[in-house]
Amino acid sequence: MTLHACDIAWEAGGQPIVRGVTLRVPEGRLLGLVGPNGSGKSSLLRLLAGLRRGSDGAVLLDHRPMSAVPRREVARRLAFVEQQVSTEVVLTAREVVALGRTPHRGAWEAWSEADHAAVSAALARTGMADRADQLWSTLSGGERQRIQIARALAQEPRELLLDEPTNHLDIRHQLDLLKLLQSLDTSCIAALHDLNHAVAFCDEIAVVKDGTLVIQGRPADVMTVDLIRSVFEVAATVREDPENGRVRLDFLPD
Amino acid sequence: MTVHVQAEVRPRSFRRLGLPAFGLIALAALFLAAAGAISIGEVAIPPAEILKVLGNRLFGMDLAVDPIREGIVWHYRLSRAAMAASAGAALAICGTVLQALLRNPLAEPYLLGISAGASTGAVLVMVLGIGAGTVTLPGGAFLGAGLAFAFVAFLAHGSGGGTERVILAGIAGSQLFNAATSFIVTTSANAEQTRGIMFWLLGSLGGARWADTALALPVLAVGLAVCLFRARALDAFAFGEDAAASIGIDVSRVRTELFAVTALLTAAIISLVGAVGFVGLVVPHATRFLVGPAHGRLLPASALAGGVFMVAADVLSRIVVPGQVLPIGVVTALFGAPAFAFILWRSRRGA
Fold this sequence. Notes:
The complex is a heterodimer of chains A (254) and B (351). With 254 residues, chain A is of the alpha/beta class. Chain A has helices spanning 41-48, 71-75, 93-98, 113-125, 141-154, 171-183, 195-201, 219-222, 225-232; strands at 3-12, 15-24, 30-34, 56-61, 64-65, 78-81, 159-163, 187-191, 204-209, 212-217, 235-240, 247-252. Chain A has a domain at 86-156. By secondary structure, chain B is an all-alpha fold. Mean pLDDT of chain B is 86; it is low at 1-13. The chains are: A alpha/beta (254), B mainly alpha (351).
C-alpha cells in the first residue's frame, strides 16, 4: 500500500466537494473510480495526485503526507492524466511525451539515453510511435489522449491516475486503453463513466457519491442491483459470466 | 530502376534553426545594426572611423581620430546602441517568460500594464525628488511594476481567472497607471519635468550613457540566468498549471520567482529608457517561429533578437523624419500593433 487517502476532505467556494474519503490504492492493480456526474471523482483524483491540498485529512505517499513531499519527487513516481488539455505551443507528439521526463532531469542536465528510451517505450506502448513527429495540433482527440498517457508513462510512475481517460475515444481505442492499463505493473486509478467497462477491466471498483466513498471492492461484490439503484438511480440487472467470473450489467428503462 | 514515391501525409517537417546558426545570424545582424546606429546621425561617421575609435578605447591603440568625433562615437552613439540592445533583450525575455507562464500569446510587460506601473513609480520618485536619481529611480520603477503586477493579478483572478482575462485586466491597469503618470507630471512637475512625460509614455534612448548600460547589463545577465535556470519549468507550462505541477514543477514558487524577475527587468529598463511597448510581444513570436518553443534555446535567441530589433528601431527612429528623432516607442508600436493584430487573428482561427 503506497498511495492512501485518509479521511480526505476538500471544499470549493465554501461548498464541500469531497467529504472525508478513505481510500487505498491496490498495488499494481487497476482501480476504477465510478459515480454519477458531480460526485467528486475528478476532485478526489486531483487530491490523490497532490494537485489540490485537502481541507481536512491527508493523502499519504509511502506513509508520508503528500504535502510534505517535494513536487518533483512526487512526479517521479506518480503521474496524472487530465480529462482534456490544450496548448497554443507548437509541439510535436514526441516533444509532448518528452515533457514526462521533466521530473527526472536537472536544470542543466542534458537529454540522456535513459530519457530517450523512456520516451520511445511510452510511444510504442500507446501505439503512437509512428505519429511521434506529427504536430500535437494535427492529432485527433483520441490520439491526443494517448499522447498524454504516453507522457505519463514516460514519467515511469508507480502510480498512474487518469481522469476519464476513455472520453473522446472510439470503442476500439477505449478497449485498447483499458487493456493497456490492465497490463501495466503500475498501480492505476481511472475515473470511468461506463460501468460495464469498469466491471470488465478493473481489479477493484470504488463507488463515489456526493463526495463520499460508498464502497470499495471486487467488481462482482460491489456492483449489485441495490447499489446501482441507490447510487446511479437506475434499474439494472446483474449477470455473472460463469466462464471468467466477471459481471455484466444491463440497464432497464423504467 | 524503380522510383519510390512516398506519400508523405505529415504536414511539414520541423526543421528548426539550431541555436548556433541562429546565434551567428543574430550576432551578425546586431553588429550591422549597431554599425548603422553609430554611423548615422547629424555627424555621419564612416565605419572605418568607428573601428579606429573602438581600437583606441578597447585595445588602447593610438590611432588618429578627431577627439570630438571620437566622443560622439564612444560617449553618445555606442552607449546608446548598447542601451538599446540591452533594453530590447530584457523586454524580449520578459515577453517570452510572461507568454509561457500566463499561456497567453499576447502577454508582455507593456500590454499587461507593468511598464505603465513602472513609469508611474519612476515619475513619482523623480517628481518627489526622493534620494539620488540613479538608485531610487529604478527602485520606484520596481515598486510600481510590482504594484501593477499585483493589480493585474488581483483583477484577473477576481474576474474569474482565465488567460484572456489577464489581458483585459492589463488594459485596465495600463490605462490607470498611464493616467496616474500624466496626472503626477501635469500637476506636480516643473516645466522641465513636464517635457519628460513623452519619455515615460513613449520611451527615449536620448539620455542613454555608459552609466545606464552599467546598470542595465548586470540586471539583464541575472534575469537571463534565472530564466534559463527555469527553462524546463517554462516548457512544462505548455499544458497549464496542473499539467506543470503533475510533472514536478513547484508552480507557485516558479511563478512568483519569474514574475519578480520580469518585474525587475521591466523596471530597470523603464527607469532608463521609458515605457517601450510591443518589443516583448513581437520578438518572442518571431523567434519561436525560427528556433521552436523550447525555452532553453528560445530565451537566449529572443534576447539576441530583441537586441537587434531595438537597435534597428533606434536607427529607424532617427532617419524616418529628417532632422527629428521619433520616440522609440512610436517606432516599436508601428511594428508591434500590426503584429498584435496578426497574432490575435491567428489565435482566433486556431481556437
